[in-house]
Amino acid sequence: MITSKTFADIVKEHRENEFSATILSAVVEKPTGYGRIIRNASGDVTAIVEEKDSSSEEKLINEINTGTYVFEGEGLFDSLKKIGNQNAQGEYYLPDLVKLYRNSGKKLGAMKLKNYLESHGVNSPEDLHILSSMIKGEAVHP
């Protein structure tokens, strides 16, 4: 559950830095199942690699893709047409735009969530309890 403050913050980050795309990431203790944020030595995002396509080294990365992005509208739909499905799942991955943008020289940004629980999915009764507690403002310990 991304808060309105976080959404406003990522849009502000995107606009102030004139990024073509901005990714919302989170650092988590157990990243299994999530796409990993790949950064170069300078700390710039170079790609997002989905769990099923990641190497054993990439699986050790604990910065994950939350699936929340801000894109510049100009050129987005043309870029989407360039995404292929040559991956472990045979799917068209929106995160592939990151590598495509990077390779074409577009400016990318990434903002790390201060509270990774905002990106927590709801796939079980325990997950629902965590989200409900967050909404009520209670202390949450997943």
Automatic annotation (TrEMBL):
Keyword Nucleotidyltransferase applies: yes
Catalytic activity: alpha-D-glucosamine 1-phosphate + acetyl-CoA = N-acetyl-alpha-D-glucosamine 1-phosphate + CoA + H(+); N-acetyl-alpha-D-glucosamine 1-phosphate + UTP + H(+) = UDP-N-acetyl-alpha-D-glucosamine + diphosphate
Residue stretches in coiled coil: none
Alphabetically ordered keywords of this record: Acyltransferase, Nucleotidyltransferase, Transferase
Pfam family of the protein (one): NTP_transferase
Start and end residues of each Nucleotidyl transferase domain: 2-114
One GO molecular-function entry: glucosamine-1-phosphate N-acetyltransferase activity
PANTHER family attached to this UniProt entry: BIFUNCTIONAL PROTEIN GLMU, NUCLEOTIDYL TRANSFERASE
Function summary: Catalyzes the last two sequential reactions in the de novo biosynthetic pathway for UDP-N-acetylglucosamine (UDP-GlcNAc). The C-terminal domain catalyzes the transfer of acetyl group from acetyl coenzyme A to glucosamine-1-phosphate (GlcN-1-P) to produce N-acetylglucosamine-1-phosphate (GlcNAc-1-P), which is converted into UDP-GlcNAc by the transfer of uridine 5-monophosphate (from uridine 5-triphosphate), a reaction catalyzed by the N-terminal domain.
Protein name as it appears in the record: Bifunctional protein GlmU domain protein
Organism field: Leptospira alexanderi serovar Manhao 3 str. L 60
